[in-house]
Amino acid sequence: MSILFSGDFHANEINELSYISRETLVGKYSREEYSGIAWHVILGDGGFLWPHKQKTDEANFMALSKRPFPVLCIVGNHEPILGRNDIPEVDLGLGETVYQIHDKPLVAYLKRGKVYTIGGFKFLVLGGALSIDKGWRKPSVSWWAKEYWSEEEKEDLFALLEKEHDFDYVLAHTGPNTVNVELFGDIMPGSPKFKDEVAILNDEIDSRINCRGWWCGHWHKDRYFYDEDRQRGYQYLYKGTNIL
C-alpha cells in the first residue's frame, strides 16, 4: 500500500482539485498504482472549514469522496482550524491522535511536532509558515493566533528530538530556510518567505535528525533538491503529485 502526496489545496480556491481528482490520478498513474493508494497527504494549506464557506467544503468533500482513500493534512498557514478549539481528536492507529474534520471521506489534520507511522513509514510531522498575504504592507501579520509555533510546542519538540531523532521522512509545510533559498532564491529574490521563523526553525530541526528526506508545499512550485552532504532529498509539491 502506498501514500499519495500533494501540495497546497486552499479549498480548491484556484482549481487545485484538478491536480488530485480521481480522473487526474487515474490518468497519471497505472490502475494498479492508484488502487494501491492507502492515504493521501496534503502538505499544508488544506484550507478546509473556512468561515462562511460551508458550500465550498461540501463540494470539495463530495469530490474527494469519489476516491477510496482518506486525506491527512499537514497544518499550513491558511488553516481555519488554527482559530478553533472545537475540532474532535480521534485515534486512527497512527501513533498520535488527529483532528478529524470530516467522516466520509475521512479528512483529518496531523498535529505538528508529533511522530506518526503511516503506511509503514515513520514521519516527523511539522507545519506552519509565514503568511505574506494577510496584509501586503505588513506581510508578517498572521491569519490565526496559532499560525506560528508556540514556545511550549518548540520546547516539547526539542525534548522529543533529544530522545528520538531517526525518521523515515519529515512532513512539513515549508522546508528548511537554507533549502528554500537554494531552490527559490533566484526566482523569488527578496521574498519575505526567506525571513520565516518557521523555516528558520526547520533549519535547526534538520540539523538534529536523521531521515531520508522532506516533503513540503507552501511555495506553489514543484521542485526537488538533493543534499549530497546530508544524503537526503527535499520534495516541494503544488501542481504535481508523488507516490511513496
From TrEMBL:
SUPFAM superfamilies: Metallo-dependent phosphatases (SSF56300). Residues 1-221 form the Calcineurin-like phosphoesterase domain. InterPro entries: Calcineurin-like_PHP, Metallo-depent_PP-like. GO terms for molecular function: hydrolase activity. It comes from the Bacteria. This is Ser/Thr protein phosphatase family protein. It comes from Leadbettera azotonutricia (strain ATCC BAA-888 / DSM 13862 / ZAS-9).
